[in-house]
Design brief:
The protein is built from four helices and two strands, in the order E-H-H-H-E-H. It is mainly alpha-helical. It has a two-stranded parallel ribbon with strand order 1-2. The radius of gyration is 27 Å and the shape is elongated.
């Protein structure tokens, strides 16, 4: 069973800039910075969590299918060992049945993988939009004119490390994500407590 791995290459979607000018029409210098979006998307905790979630989903959903595959493989082995005894007509009929089942199993496996890939791609698209929006807000806060990307679509071949804001963005994103994640866990715990209280109240009645 193939495992689902998130396409970190989506980081390349973050930015695209075709303007290589360093000064504006008035002659003053632009205030610029750049981000290593590949590093950003690899080390952003939300992306890691999504990656882990879909690996687990792939393994869980694949268990039932794996059982079918193993049973099918065992049947193929039995067929191979008894085909000569059963005769040619039986072997041809059984062989066609096994071939049809093999195709069905392959279709099931492909459908499972594609379904998980579609789900994970939607979540990753949402993360990319969120990160892009966050970098835009950061640029406004720091009064930056441009934030460039070091991925394929960028025009940056070299940049001084002092203009690299990747670590700062990454630190703020992860802190924000951990905070919102912790808050959601607290909310879930409160909901569970309320459920338990209702359950206890019903039992006492």
């Amino acid at each position: 069973m193939k495992k689902i791995f998130l396409a970190v290459g989506l980081a390349g979607m973050l930015f695209a800039c075709n303007n290589s000018n360093n000064s504006n029409p008035g002659g003053s210098e632009f205030k610029t910075a750049y981000v290593d979006s590949s590093k950003l998307m690899k080390e952003y905790e939300e992306v890691k969590d999504i990656d882990s979630k879909y690996k687990i989903k792939s393994e869980e959903k694949g268990k039932a299918l794996q059982g079918e595959i193993e049973r099918f493989q065992q049947e193929v082995q039995n067929f191979q060992s008894t085909a000569a005894q059963k005769g040619q007509a039986w072997a041809q009929q059984k062989g066609m049945e096994l071939q049809k089942r093999e195709q069905e199993l392959q279709y099931k496996q492909q459908s499972l993988l594609q379904g998980l890939q579609v789900e994970s791609a939607k979540e990753m698209d949402s993360v990319v939009k969120k990160v892009k929006g966050y970098i835009g807000d950061y640029a406004k806060k720091k009064n930056l004119d441009y934030v460039f990307n070091t991925e394929e679509a960028s025009t940056i071949v070299y940049g001084k490390e002092q203009y690299n804001i990747t670590e700062e963005i990454l630190k703020e994103l992860n802190a924000k994500y951990k905070g919102s994640n912790a808050a959601s866990k607290v909310d879930e715990a409160k909901k569970d407590e309320k459920k338990e209280e209702k359950k206890d109240t019903k039992e006492t009645k």
